[in-house]
Amino acid sequence: MNIHEYQAKQLFKKYGITIPQGKIAETPEQALEAAREIDSENWIIKAQVHAGGRGKGGGVKIASSIEEVKTIAENMLGMRLVTHQTGPNGKLVQKIYIEEVAPIKKEYYLGLVLDRTAEMPVMIASTEGGMEIEKVAAEFPDKIIKVRIDPMIGFRNFYSAELANGLGLDKVQSRDFAKFTRALYTLYKEKDAGLIEINPLVLKDDNTFIALDAKINFDDNALFRHEDILEMRDLSEEEPTELEASNFNLNYIKLDGNVGCMVNGAGLAMSTMDIIKIKGGEPANFLDVGGDASAETVAKGFEIILRDKNVKAIFVNIFGGIVRCDRIANGILEASKETNIAVPVIVRLDGTNAEIAADILQKAHIPNIITATSLADGAQKAVNAARGV
Amino acid sequence: MGILVNRNSKVIVQGFTGKEATFHAEQCIEYGTNIVGGVTPGKGGQIHLDRPVFSTVKDAVEHTGADTSLILVPPSFAADAIMEAANGGIKVIVCISEGIPTQDVMYAKKFVAKKGAVLIGPNCPGIITAGEAKIGIMPGNIFKKGNVGVISKSGTLTYEAANQVVNAGLGITTAIGIGGDPIIGSTFIDLLKLFEEDPETHAVVMIGEIGGDLEIQAAHYIKNNMKKPVVAFIAGQTAPKGKRMGHAGAIIAGSKGTAQEKMSALEQAGVRVCKSPADVGQATKEVLS
Question: In this complex, do B160 and A192 lie within 8 Å of one another by their Cβ atoms?
């Protein structure tokens, strides 16, 4: 789960990480009031959307007068911010964050993420603050300092010292820096974060640091024990169809092709997309109906797939294990009664109760249902049907 | 034979009396798995499915001599169940539960290793040695006995692969679902090693997917250590970057963990890589002929 910058900064503050003075606003009037309350000569105004690259898209502006704050707020609130992470439609800006502008002596990067290879968290620092860390890693790999933190001993001073040394910090700077590294680890551990980034982490003239930006995401599996984090969830930032699907235990991700897919199991669902592509088609979606698919969830799956007007055929690919194929077959029948399925539906049912399922479908005599005998056969038929052949 | 589990494995089920656990335990018993009892806290002394229920793993091991455990408990209790099993002396721990916090698995895995036990999963269908023991939730009838080992990150794709292998006229020694989480117990390498040593296994099918680098590590291992042929398929060639594809671990982070990257590493290691998931059975037949 992702949260907004202003929420991440509130958490930072709680953990003792220095942040600029700032206030959130949903209207130009609130923005104005916020700027008046923040003791500064100029202000930075930042669009609060779940996407990186906001600056380039016009989602970060500096105002040098109160009037300018209002003008910028008026323009920014309600705009659709397009960045390299939002897709072409961009994201609606509903909230902006107004902050004092902090004087910058030098910019750094500091982050913490799970290192899947080492199976422990890794803290990453770089002197190239403000740049995307992936880019730094690709262009200046020697400017990235990493320390893997053994969770069995927890965060120790030497980890911070190694990072500070790599960044070339002096004694005074290192001492303040250590507050940040320790806080980052504590936050990661206590709140089950998946990733925390301060980019840039700014060194001020007085040799102390301040977190100019903040990004945190959390392990979805651990949200059950963090009510405070769950409260920060902003549903308006999530893809509405994906959200709706998840309420029915369906895992749906929209793609750009025209062959709709309905599959049980994430791995088989990905493979189904892959084989559609290999057969010359393009998948319209990823859809995992899960291990406890019922007639109801299958019907909902059809409804969601068919909302995408690009879809010209649907490939139902089920390998029954816990999911019984006869249940899926009944789901298809139910869906065909409730929803007008105007496109060809290619059905491949294998595994538990596949014969019973075949019988159910055959007896129903639905004209646009085409049965398939294998994964390859089904994919080919689906691609052909989408082409109209 | 096969690896890790066989007809002599003495299996307990943690979460035994729960509804789902009961269903799957019945299926395992029907398959012929030697289920010797189960654990449900507070229900020690009861009888369930004609087998004794214990309140702790420690009690269960003491009374039944169990060496293997099947964990079917809710995710918030699962890491604890894994560590209790390891602490109680269980040697092969199979955790089906999906949705365990990553940090919990991180600690549990380290503890299991310290106790010298093997962890399969979490978030997996389990392990089956054909004709001997099914310790998991997979449909047992698909896995006909033969000489091919299967290691897979995905559940239903394991069934698909096994089914193709059987339809190609071959069969399975042991099939293991290793799970789709960011941190899992046994990895491809751990199991490739065991298959390499297993005299009944003549070839191995490995099914990977996008995210992480376990398949790349496996490629290095295969290149330097494996004599038996390996067939591989990597799911998610068409998956968009930055999107979690169902499994918690199936995500392309930046440009890392793509299917293409994994496929080419495996190809360079001499693995027969299938571009299409429908070619696994045929490819396995070819590497064995």
Answer: no
